[in-house]
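Structure, all two chains, one model.
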Amino acid sequence: MSAGFLLVLSGPSGSGKGTVSEALMEKNEDISFSTSVTTRTPRPGEVNGENYFFTSIEDFENMVEEEELLEYAFVHTNYYGTPKKFVFDEIEKGEIVLLEIDVQGALQIKKRYKEAVFIFLLPPTMDELRNRLVKRDTETEEEINTRFKNAFKELDFVGEYDYFVVNNEVDDAVESIEHIIAAEKLRVKRHKDIKKEVLAEKKGDL
Amino acid sequence: MSAGFLLVLSGPSGSGKGTVSEALMEKNEDISFSTSVTTRTPRPGEVNGENYFFTSIEDFENMVEEEELLEYAFVHTNYYGTPKKFVFDEIEKGEIVLLEIDVQGALQIKKRYKEAVFIFLLPPTMDELRNRLVKRDTETEEEINTRFKNAFKELDFVGEYDYFVVNNEVDDAVESIEHIIAAEKLRVKRHKDIKKEVLAEKKGDL
């Protein structure tokens, strides 16, 4: 009596969605991680179908046309997208599929697949978000300012999400997401015929 | 950043909602238990406003007319109902209010107050439900048969609920409800302006 679903973990740069996502996967081996499709060249050691599904630009654009992607984006010189087939196959098997994605991507998915569970990861404060962007030391000051301004705007979209989780401590954020997963497994709407399931079950099997 | 809500725990006779409800309250002292209003005479030791709000038939019928009740029923010779005021005052304070009620009552509430969280408690099997009804030893065989048939019919209404919880072991059922409560506290829709809350918070306060 288990029903899978897509869990979209999203939030602005600096909310810590990458770290939380990794910690969540480490603690919950039964969660599938959504594998993206990309047109970029595989790096040494990257395995097709594991790190990414690697594909040509032509094939990618075909997928877009055929509506085979839940969302996609063009970043620098490459396409990245989320293939429906992988996600839906896993859900069909009763799996929970985690997709960690920026706010723009999550909003695209919301339009195409409302059945997903949308979590908005929040920084405890905007000061803390800026600290995290600075600490990463991967962007110039100008880039940090841009990301900060974007984060500020992206907070306007929290109303499109189902849940919010404040990422003050990674462990607490992971625990909150675990509660959400446990609750969503018990959603009536994900089960076609609970009465039939109860009537069919032998004692203790449900 | 806490928002209260009404948690309706419901299910057929023999699903164990009374036992689960008690165990849940014992473990979670911060949950309020919804106090019913009734026209029956207080038993020795019962305190007005604690066990029940005791009232006259006239006042009760006035409350019905003024739509001051979330649900009510006439059982044997007495009225029982759930006063809106108590529930809404607690919610306003940010409390979680637990209401344990039969399926008919829950469906009444669903019509009047969709914002509540509705949990349907299921027996692991219909055989087990019958065992529980027999074990209580409070009803005649005929009454047990009636309750069993009603339980069977009431399963048709599970689709009106948000969540289902299988009561195989009381502790597991309580844990499932705790997950649901934790998740529902993180619902975006219960918070008017999360952006404002983030911007207003000092580090670590959210």
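Chain B is about 40% helix and 20% strand.
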